[in-house]
Amino acid sequence: MTADDSVDLAELYRTHHLQMVRLARLLVDDLASAEDVVQEAFLGMHRNRAALRDSGAAVGYLRRAVVNQSRSMLRRRRTVRAHLKVAEPEIAPPADSEVLLAEEHQQVLRAVDQLPPRQREVLVLRYWSDMSEAEIAAALGISKGTVKSQASRAMTALAQIMAEGGASDESAPR
């Protein structure tokens, strides 16, 4: 790859940063963590941009990095919580969080939060990021068949959670 073929990270940041933060926000449980995940993904891309053979693949690389960073963050949190016996203090959501989304959107998001991680990832990538099954499979490193089965199971579980009114504010933390 020549210097002319290099990825324009500044342009990539301007055009895709907000979209990647939204994606990460749906995968992790707060905006600050989502911003950290996206920042790490961009830093990783900066460190490895010489190895990126196709500048057209930069968005896919970035999306996969965001998904992987989100998974890593959730794994680290789960490990820390398993080893700490001290109760975590309850942190109130930001005052403007209720204004940002309509109540019905918040109910759906709370229901999505109750899904297993892989099902949540598939739904977020499919319906929020509007990715195809093949793109989701590539981003998550799984087969298209697994994407289909996880999406089907997730939709069934989501419908059940919503029907039972299980999308309450007391949903279990990830």
Automatic annotation (TrEMBL):
- Domain RNA polymerase sigma factor 70 region 4 type, chain residue ranges per copy: 106-158
Record GO biological process: DNA-templated transcription initiation
RNA polymerase sigma-70 region domain location: 12-78
A Gene Ontology MF term for this entry? sigma factor activity
Give the record's keywords alphabetically.
DNA-binding, Sigma factor, Transcription, Transcription regulation
Similarity annotation: Belongs to the sigma-70 factor family. ECF subfamily.
Quote the NCBIfam families the UniProt record gives: SigE-fam_strep (TIGR02983), sigma70-ECF (TIGR02937)
For this entry, the protein name equals RNA polymerase sigma-70 factor (Sigma-E family)
Lineage runs: Bacteria, Bacillati, Actinomycetota, Actinomycetes, Micrococcales
